[in-house]
Prior knowledge:
Blueprint: H1 8-16, H2 31-43, H3 58-67, H4 72-88, H5 96-113, H6 116-128, E1 131-132, H7 137-142, H8 148-160, E2 164-169, E3 172-177, H9 187-190
Antiparallel strand pairs: 1-3, 2-3
Amino acid sequence: MTGRGFTDLQEATLKALGIFSEDIPLEKMSQDALRQIAINYLNSARKEPRNDPHPFTEEVMQLITAYAQGVPRQLNTICEKVLRKAASEELESIDETAFSSIWQTLQQDFTYSLSAQFRNLLYIAHQAGGISEDISDRDLDKLDAVTFVALLPQLKSMEEQGLLIRQEDEKGFRFTPSQLFEPKFLPESKSE
């Protein structure tokens, strides 16, 4: 990937020409590395740098870095949303009690804000433990798709929007929902 928004056709052309032809897989970051990213970002807005994640407690930062699933973009999104909500509630610090309440509200707001199509895809991905090329025919039918390849453009788009996280292993890759998505807030999950 080049960092610029190329279409699949443009990327294929560039690869065929040997330009930007090497895919560089990005490893998931550790919770410690994500914690340090959060501290660095917080320090950019502080008058005096600190070595802790204040206003987050260490316990809350552990939860946030776990929810980010090793992806810096997810970390930034989660931190930004939590900080905004905490500021609107005039909280000086964000402990586990405050975070639990904020997190539930954020998940609910995030889930409700999605289009029906995105909610459906995320719900199926959640139920299946992710979407990969071994997706069942039953799940493909639920998504009105003939093949996994037919879903790829939508999956990539949702990944770019931070709705899905692409996870790679020796079997290939799988798209899993962001932890901001919470299926318990969906009507279809209450009936199961």
